[in-house]
Write a structure and sequence with these properties.
There is one protein chain. The protein is an alpha+beta fold. It has one domain. The protein has 2 helices and 2 strands; from the N terminus they run H-E-E-H. It has a two-stranded antiparallel ribbon.
Length: 65
């Protein structure tokens, strides 16, 4: 659902740089969809350690099949 909204908003007005919405997994927190046209660049990234990945999977009830 959030992807459909993001696409509709992206297409509706080129001035909008992204959207903020309530996260389905953490409904007290926000998630962000930043459109490429915003010009924002990722400064760095890090590979998750196994313990971090396991903790995130537990938190969001994700199971590998």
């Amino acid at each position: 659902m959030s992807q459909a909204w993001a696409q509709a908003i992206h297409d509706a007005d080129p001035r909008w740089q992204g959207i903020r919405y309530v996260s389905r997994q953490m409904n007290k927190g926000f998630a962000y969809a930043i459109f490429e046209r915003s010009g924002l660049k990722k400064l760095r990234s890090e590979k998750l350690k196994v313990a971090q990945l396991d903790a995130l999977c537990d938190l969001f009830n994700v199971v590998a099949v």
